[in-house]
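Homework help thread (please don't just give me the answer)

Our assignment gives two proteins as sequence + structure token strings and asks us to describe the second one. The first is just a warm-up. Here they are:
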Amino acid sequence: MVNHIVWVIFDSARYDCFEAAHTPAIDRIGRAQKRYSYASWTAPSHHTFLMGLPPHANEPGVLSSDAQRRDLSLWQTRIGGNRQDAITFADFAPTLSLPLFLRSLGYRTEAYVSMPVLNPKTLIAPHFDIFELMPVHNDLRAIIGRLNFDGGPRFMFINAGETHYPYALPGENAGDLPHIPGVHGVWRGMDEFVREPQASRGEGAADRFDVDRLRPLWNKQVQCIEYLDGVIGELIEMAPPDTWFMVTSDHGELFGEGGYFGHGPVMHEKVFEVFFVEGRNPRRNGGEIGRDELEATVLGRLKQLGYL
């Protein structure tokens, strides 16, 4: 029997925020790794995920093709079952689509997203059996309530928005946290910007990027990660034992460092640093498959086939 696969993305969750957070549920799944996003904002990073490529390890002395072949080949372990041949890049060609590849193996593919930039009209949606934009951007628990593991294997791709600006939990507003105008989406107010671009600059630009002033937002993202960890704990309990979990962020966030806030057209290490955790449902056989075991299984097979 193959595994169900649940991939949860904490949108904009910064690596050091995750490290500072108390995450007992996610820690049960596997050991957190420091990884690097292929992109600095939501749409292109999710597109890369749906090519089958999670955040990369940024290993020196390793050819990019070898690193990507290894990441793609790890899907053999994630899928499980009795598949004897190592999964290679060719299995994803020519579409380079993870959901389409999984559908060819009998998976039902479902996506539930919180960010409008990932809506069902976008290019990442067509290969899913279900692709839904949630009515609010910050309610992972509502998404979990929609999941159903009955029947054949499921691939659940989930984008959680609690960790995205303004870092509000369900039913909560930003309160007295610093408000940063102009970061509510590219297309919101676009017509007004075209008519009068100078007006969008506003006042207090220096304060907008002050690290000390923005520290409460860093702290709030930590709080949001801890909240999401509790929801992941609920997901662990409801998911079948034969479920493989992947939990990560799509990119980081800047809180004033280097004169930046947020993410997007930004070149700064903190916006590319992300966390990455994966492993089988910890309720199965007492816990996770270790990362070393995972890599040893796949790398041994790759060596047999002459890739390494």
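The one we have to describe:
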Amino acid sequence: MKATRYIHLFALILLGCSTPKTNEESSNETKETVTPQPDHFIQATDGSYYLLEDLVGKRVFINYWATWCKPCIAEMPDIQAAAEILKEENYVFFLVSDQDMDKIKKFETEKGFNLTFAKLNGNIQDLNIQSLPTTVIYDTSGKRVRKIAGAVKWDSEDMLTSLREVE
């Protein structure tokens, strides 16, 4: 059992390292429509709980990350910039980890990003996420419309345009 967990962790480390992409370079992007799992809720570091089904009517940006993931941390300023640019466009942004809540809170405090950090109830692997960072975008009906593996330049014009196209 422990060996499998270490293999998954090792695979996440190996697959999670990539250079930031623009929209044209995001070859790992998929546009399948999948209904979110209702039993996977998140708890923000402020104590608030969220179910994806409760966010229907909003466009939802969820970035899966870990405190040890350098590409994850490298794209956070771009995510923060995109969140600021899109704040009046019906988007909610979450940075979700399955690590211990104390570790997430410590990271949030030390790094000082103005983002909503949250803990996943469950494991990221259970969501069929193979590498970190991975970002999943949901439309206003709660359908998953994009899944992008790897670091992205989220505040670039082409990525902002792509995010604005989500209904």
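TA reply:
I won't write it for you, but here's a hint about the kind of observation we're looking for: Residues 64 and 96 are 5 Å apart (CA to CA).
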